[in-house]
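Dear colleagues,

For the upcoming journal club I promised to circulate an example of a predicted protein-ligand complex. I picked one with S-adenosylmethionine because it came up in last month's discussion. The inputs are reproduced below in full, followed by the predicted structure.
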Amino acid sequence: MADPRLDPPKSMPTYAVRAPLVRWLGEQAADAYDALGRYRVLDVGCGAKPYEPLFTPHAASYIGVDSVDNARAELKGSVEALPVDDGAFDVVLCSQVLEHCDDPSKAVSELCRVTAPGGRVLTSTHGVMAYHPSPTDYWRWTHAGLEKLFRDNGEWASVRVTPASGTTACLGMLLSMYLDLMFRRIGLGVAARPLVAAINTAAGAIDGRSTLLHEPGPGTLFANFHVVAEVAR
Ligand SMILES: C[S@@+](CC[C@H](N)C(=O)[O-])C[C@H]1O[C@@H](n2cnc3c(N)ncnc32)[C@H](O)[C@@H]1O
């Protein structure tokens, strides 16, 4: 069966995180190829490597590392002490991991260390999300806090932080997660799906109507952020 993370349905309660993430990574995988040619990928906190198929058409190699025993990972180690040489990878992917690590500052400085000159780090992490240990769950960010975390912990040529989806999508996600949980508790899990799909459709349409809802500013609330951090040549 196809991995739903590669084609998230609107009935998925975390659609506001998953749909923009797969779209963004697909764009970044192609963009990195245009800029760097065939590249070496390190997937940090790789889990099941759901996004590997987006990168393999452009990649010379794809190596996963995880801090827990993981049959999909070629290497075992934490993002705070990566078991690889300086500058050994051109594209370093770290999706939905920073919120789980002990020391985000050390993690970002390691992501920078293992990236080759001219290479880039692609990170995604949560603004707002329910507690979800994997194996722990410590941190959430604002766009400003995430940008500061990167700028303070690496010699970057550029750092770009963008919200994955808008404020309505974030509120819709929280409501969808709650509905999904409630319906499953009473044994009617499938009944939540059309409701969640309708919420996600309406939220996307509402967010698209105003920059106040989808660009960072006072009063905004974002489920997830995407970071592209480039290392100087
Ligand atoms: C929510 S999953 C994300 C998996 C995958 N990157 C994705 O986007 O689907 C978090 C992953 O990070 C790993 N992880 C947690 N803390 C870590 C750490 N300090 N160093 C490296 N990996 C870590 C977990 O074992 C898990 O595989």
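Two points we might discuss: Residues 15-36 form the longest helix (22 residues). The chain has seven helices and seven strands.

See you all on Thursday,
B. R.
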